[in-house]
Design goal:
Radius of gyration: 16 Å
Shape: globular
Order of helices and strands: EHEHHEHEHEHEHEEH
Strand content: 5-15%
Low-confidence stretches: none
Structural class: alpha/beta
Number of helices: 8
Strand order of the largest sheet: 3-2-1-4-5-6-7-8
């Protein structure tokens, strides 16, 4: 399978990309700039493709989508790129995966990185700063992207769309004291992107270590899903 892993220069994204390459898959890496792309040379030498672009820049996301649509078709996307705090939170954590979902041709599987923090998110779109002119709420962004995954599963039943909580793992974002297992942290998204096991060929799930869990109650609220999709479409000019 041909699989895009966004935010794959380090942490969970790199681990997932490495695992998928080792499994014989055709992997497309993503880095936000050329310096970070250079750090992926070892994976490129093993046959990985790569795209470069800063997800805080919507035009860069659109360019990446157009670039990928001109290459071999993608089978799956792991929407891994994310930031913990600051003005990039909404642009990177929800606008970029929404744009890729709307603009990419072909992927039948979408795996979105959620977080247990999404339970602390507020199911309200009032006053959300999608442009990132002010710092965004990480919890809200993860509630939104988890809802996006569920909405896509409902509206596009021919696709497999799922959200994954990788746990609090010792990445650069999670910090060295994080209690969860880094190996387990990337396995579920790689499994959902590539496995032919019946459990992986399902949609609309919120997963933690290959086990389906119950997400925040707003995630499967169709009214909230529709409100979110309308807000994202109006904001970006791209519709699913």
């Amino acid at each position: 399978m041909r699989i895009l892993v966004t935010g794959s220069a380090d942490g969970l994204g790199r681990a997932a990309a490495d695992s998928l390459l080792s499994g014989g898959h055709d992997v497309v890496l993503h880095a936000r700039n050329q310096d970070r792309a250079a750090s992926l040379a070892a994976l490129v030498d093993r046959g990985a493709d790569i795209v470069v672009g800063d997800f805080t820049d919507r035009d860069a996301v659109r360019r990446i989508a157009a670039e990928l649509n001109g290459r071999d078709p993608l089978d799956a996307v792991i929407h891994n790129a994310g930031v913990w705090r600051g003005r990039a939170v909404m642009p990177v954590n929800i606008i970029a995966p929404y744009l890729l979902t709307a603009l990419l041709d072909g992927p039948r599987r979408h795996v979105y990185l959620s977080s247990g923090s999404h339970f602390g998110g507020q199911p309200s779109l009032a006053g959300v700063d999608w442009q990132g002119t002010t710092p965004g709420s990480y919890a809200d962004s993860k509630l939104f992207v988890t809802t996006l995954a569920a909405a896509l599963a409902r509206l596009r039943p021919e696709l497999f769309s799922n959200a994954v909580d990788p746990g609090w793992v010792p990445t650069k974002m999670g910090g060295p004291g994080a209690p969860d297992d880094l190996e387990l942290g990337h396995q579920t998204q790689a499994w959902l992107a590539a496995s032919d096991q019946p459990e992986a060929l399902t949609s609309g799930g919120y997963w933690y270590h290959q086990q389906r869990q119950q997400p925040h109650r707003a995630v499967n609220d169709h009214t909230f899903q529709d409100q979110l999709l309308k807000a994202l479409a109006d904001e970006t000019g791209a519709r699913l």
